[in-house]
Design goal:
Length: about 200
């Protein structure tokens, strides 16, 4: 599949799920209007190119930067917002390291994208559970990795096209699904443990 197609497919699937009533599970308290505005902005800005520092930058990266700042601003305390931004940069550094290792030693990581997607989803799950902070972290992570990759390659290509758009949407879906599944598994374990403890207490009485 050509770079950029995966983001279109995943975005279409996400919009279908939202229209089918899955929004509360996938995106929690984020409003439907906000999600529609984001999707509309993504499509519109994907055709926009802005020169920044001599680099041609796709408009979607500017949208991701705005989402990261907005997610940080929505935190209860300024320190919480700063921690969210720091977490996004940290995850982006991890992603850049993984892809750099894969380029230098491909035998160690034959499938860096799959490896990184799984670990990124788990890492973000450990940091945050709610949708908005997760989206803020992964948005800043993609932005950080894209900037580092561009700098390492001396700005050889336009920034924020194709593969970066694919990564953001795949990261988003895998992170949210991982969060939903692990949270459901944790609830099942707690419920099972609670029933078992109740049975033991009843047996002792």
């Amino acid at each position: 599949m050509n770079a950029g197609y995966a983001s279109i497919v995943v975005m279409g699937m996400t919009l279908i799920l939202l229209a089918s009533g899955w929004k509360p599970l996938l995106f929690g308290s984020i409003s439907g209007r906000g999600l529609v505005a984001f999707a509309t902005g993504w499509i519109a800005l994907s055709f926009v190119q802005v020169p920044i520092g001599g680099w041609p930058v796709n408009g979607t990266l500017l949208l991701l930067a705005g989402i990261s700042v907005w997610a940080a601003a929505r935190q209860r305390k300024p320190m919480d917002g700063a921690q969210l931004l720091a977490s996004g940069v940290m995850v982006g550094l991890f992603g850049f390291l993984v892809h750099s290792l894969a380029e230098g030693a491909p035998m160690l990581l034959p499938s860096p994208d799959g490896f990184l997607t799984c670990w990124l989803a788990l890492l973000i799950f450990c940091l945050y559970r709610k949708p908005l902070p997760q989206i803020g972290v992964l948005s800043l992570a993609v932005l950080t990795e894209a900037l580092l990759h561009q700098y390492a390659n001396s700005g050889a290509a336009a920034l924020g096209y194709g593969v970066w758009q694919d990564r953001w949407w795949v990261y988003l879906v895998v992170t949210r699904l991982t969060t939903i599944l692990l949270a459901a598994a944790a609830r099942m374990v707690r419920d099972k443990a609670g029933r078992l403890a109740a049975r033991r207490k009843k047996a002792r009485d």
